[in-house]
Amino acid sequence: MDGLRRAPQQARSRARVRRLLEAADAVLAADGYDALTIRRIAAEAGVPVGTIYQFFPDKQAIVDALARRYLEEFAAVVEDVTDRASRERWDDPVQILLDAFIGLYRSRPGYLTIWTGDHLSPELRRADEENNAAIADGVRSVLISQLGLSDSADLARSCQIAVQVCDALLRYAFRDGTADEAVLTELVRLQRLYLADLVTRYLH
What we know:
Layout: H1 11-31, H2 38-45, H3 49-55, H4 59-87, H5 93-107, H6 110-115, H7 122-147, H8 153-173, H9 181-202
């Protein structure tokens, strides 16, 4: 995990790092980035301050490690939905796809605090862009397997647009830390309408 002072080798050490990241996520979700200090994380995790410095040199390293964990979780969701789409038949691909990503936003409220501020390194900004590109590739794969759409550069671009719109509206829906259900409902409606248009353009 990038940003670590030393990589945890033992199960106990790996569990301790996970605990520290969970504590950082909780602080971000509750009180925002400015409240995220080494002392606050230590208090939230119930460990001495020195324990944190065993693994992380500073607060930014914790933020970077947490950001990378979020990205890994998004990648795992993409892998899961593409695998399921190849084995199952879905009546409503839009709802299933959005439910998967909305679930991450609900379970990781600290995510938006990091991504909507100026708290990421340029490297992690690029990693976020690559993450959205990977999500778009996953969406394209789902639409091809579920609906029989013809693969093309145009379909790839349309999926990238759908993901960018979804990303913006999810951030808006969770702008206060909790879900604005009305916005999420509108997001589903918007994406269903867009998908209907894609079907008319890209169906075999």
